[in-house]
Amino acid sequence: MDRHCQQALQRKVLRKGTTLRELSALLEPHLPHLTTPSTATAWQKRATQTRQRLLEHFFVGHPSGLLQEQPRVQWRGTIETGEGYRIRKLRYEGYPGMWVPALLYEPTVLKGKVPVVLNPNGHHAGGKAMDYKQARCINLAKRGMLALNTEFIGMGELRADAEHLRISLLDVLGVAGIGVFYLLMKRGLDVLLAHRHADPERVAMTGLSGGGWQTALLSALDERITAIVPVAGHSPLWQRRSCVADIGDLEQCPSDLCTIADYDTLTGMFAPRPSLLIYNHEDDCCFQTRRTRGSIYRPARAIYELLGVGDRIGLHDNTDPGTHNYERDNRRQLYRFLDEHFGLTTVDDDLPYEQELQTEAELDVGLPADNATMHSLAMGHLQEIRRKRNRRSSATPAARRARLRRLLNLSASTKPRPKSGPTKSRSKVTAKVVSTHRAGVTQWRLSVAGLTVPMTQIQPQGRVAGIEIVLNDAGRAGSSLAAAGGLARQHQVLVVDLLGTGESHVSHQYHMVAASAGLRPLGLQTEQLQALIDWVRRRFRVDKVHLRASGTVMPVVALLAAALEPGRIADIELGGYLGTLDRLIDLPLSYAAQAPLFCFGLLAEIDLPDLLRLATGVPVHDLQRGPLKR
After folding, report:
1. Per residue in 499-518, pLDDT tens?
2. What is the pLDDT of residue 162?
3. What DSSP assignment string belongs to 231-289?
4. Which among 66, 106, 198, 504 has most CB atoms closer than 10 A?
């Protein structure tokens, strides 16, 4: 292949930001805003149903009865501070095999029932030892309250799961990873309320960042929490899709969440309980007040007003320091809020704490050597899936293809059609020539499945023996060798950037939002390829096309297209073929780099050898292995 062709593959075809704008528009109808019902009764019915549906969804694939079980607790020593409170170390089994370290800040003198506050962590490496969190818990204990300081997955002593995206390892196995996060915080609340001095009528929850997210999620679904103060931790995904800084980690955007409820609805579900939403004016992380005032506070306030308790929800816009924080000003808001709603009279500022801060080592609780992680939990489920494969019932190819379409959430228009006769496009494809160059090169923009796809067409010299579609995780710019191989075979070569590749790349965080909206990025890619194959067959009057796919994701997309409709593909050549999706878990692979492959439930149902068997009659050749066996 000459240098003109190589330069053409490097040349930009799309305007900057095209894919992101179009994907955002594609997601919009799948991310509806909260609408206020006409009556309080209608809202209460909706809230009850939403709680039930979300909890069922969060525990798909998990052992039954987990929510009802009480956690095992081990007390691990006490720090006597001599300052009117003690710190009791403990760990509780948040999920079977996964123990969570925690600290209970307990007033030295306790009589009767006292208010309790659950304090989850955010995304800070120091975890439960962070100074701003110690300051808050010390102050709550000095005010006569019980404060439980729990560790967050990936932080502090739970740093083995520092890669929060490993929630995807469970998702692809058909086990809702969000259920692990939820159960850990729910069981922290169980531990706190089991204290003999805990007042079940005065139960607060508060945290910053990921702790704010935990506060919002648990408070929406667990009505035992009677006062709610999330700090800079959440906003609806319909707002986040236009602000990558707000999207967050994978647990904050679990698959299919928004098919049930977005975070504006969850915040409305705080009602009628007293709530104070705290955001930071110049937040250097996420969720600035200017965005959340309209997306979270106002919709939630409308629900409170519908219930006749509009005065029970407030918004505080922190300007001192205004960054991502839970410092003095935000703590003062918490103290005032608890005084008002728990019938307390305490000092309107921090009580002394600076000389009482403990080091991370001093607050260490200790964990079992074999404490479970997201990876180890996933490995356990994978072993069970491997055992079941040998006993898997032999469904017909048609039934397996139907199941595959459901897993990928392919639109109804992608159902197979007869091999012969006219091929009506499943997704309308429109094509526009951008430019033509010497050496038989044409640049195209194709509109496929609602997204613009760049394509470089390269004509061989002499007779054309076939049409070849070239895909690469690295995009057109990384496809020169594959394109050269096609030209050597006298094939007309079409090098394409499907969603997530080359010029069509978007951050893995947008794949998260798409999955949370009920879509499947792997399904979108497959639908694009199927539509492209149909268009090529019509445009160039061929019966079948050749596929060349390299990388980690694109070979799977090529096999999916062949498994669903083998009659339209002449052969497939793969580079980087995994051999089995089990490698997603075994290695494990990174969600950030291969997000589409972590399609919810895919590996529980179908593996790559299954796709090979469904691609009946399509020769498949792997560059590293040779012809692949069925």
Report:
1. 999 999 999 999 999 999 99
2. 84
3. ES----HHHHTT-GGGT--GGGS-TTGGGT--HHHHHHTTTTS-EEEEEETT-SSS-BH
4. 504
**Rg of the chain in Å (alpha carbons):** 27
Q: How far apart, in whole angstroms, are the C-alpha atoms of residue 47 and residue 31?
A: 18
The C-alpha atoms of residue 551 and residue 475 are separated, in whole angstroms, by: 10
Element (H, E) at 601: none
CA of residue 290 relative to chain centroid, distance: 24
Whole-angstrom distance, CA of residue 292 vs CA of residue 233: 10
* 289-325 residue pLDDT tens: 999 999 999 999 999 999 999 999 999 999 999 999 9
Sheet holding 430-437, edge to edge: 430-437, 441-448, 451-458, 491-496, 466-472, 545-550, 569-575, 620-622, 626-627
Q: Side chain identity at 357, as an amino acid letter?
A: L
Query: What is the Cα–Cα distance from 477 to 502, expressed in whole angstroms?
Result: 7
Q: Which residues are bridge partners to 278 per DSSP?
A: 231, 316
d(CA 184, CA 168): 17
If pLDDT is split at 50, 70 and 90, which confidence band does 378 have? very high
- Beta bridge pairs of residue 547: 469, 572
Residue 433's CB is within 10 A of a number of other CB atoms, namely: 10
Question: Angle, nearest 10°, between helix axes 554-564 and 397-408?
Answer: 130
Residue 207 DSSP one-character state: E
Which residues, 6+ apart, have CB-to-CB distance to 471 below 8 Å? Answer: 479, 496, 498, 501, 529, 547, 548, 549, 550, 551, 554, 557, 558
Three-state DSSP class for 187? helix
Helix (H, G, I), strand (E, B) or coil at 519: coil
For residue 111, CA distances in Å to 114, 144, 257, 342, 437 come to 8, 10, 43, 16, 85
Please give the full DSSP string across 557-582, using - where no structure is assigned.
HHHHHHHH-GGGEEEEEEES--S-TT
Share of the chain above pLDDT 90, in %: 91
552 neighbors 587 (Cβ within 8 angstroms): no
Domain with CATH 3.40.50.1820 in the chain: 3-25+400-627, 31-380
Residue 416 has pLDDT above 60, yes or no: no
CATH architecture of 31-380: 3-Layer(aba) Sandwich (3.40)
Which token pair is 90? Answer: 């403990």
Ramachandran region, residue 573 (left: φ > 0; alpha: ψ -120 to 50; beta: rest): beta
- In this structure, what are the phi and psi dihedrals at residue 411, rounded to the nearest 5 degrees? -65, 160
- Residue 118 phi/psi, 5° resolution? -90, 125
Residues 6+ apart with CB under 8 A from 394: none
Where does residue 571 rank: exposed (0-12), middle (13-18), buried (19+ CB within 10 A)?
middle
Q: Please compute, for residue 44, the number of CA atoms within 13 A of its CA located in the half-sphere on the CB side.
A: 9
C-alpha closest to that of 208 among 270, 258, 149: 149
* CATH code at 3-25+400-627: 3.40.50.1820
DSSP-derived 3-state class of residue 4: helix
CB atoms within 10 A of CB 36: 13
Per-residue b/e over 56-91, b at no fewer than 16 CB within 10 Å? ebbbbbbeeebeeeebebeeeeeeebeeebbbbbbb
Give the whole-angstrom CA distance, residue 92 versus residue 185.
11
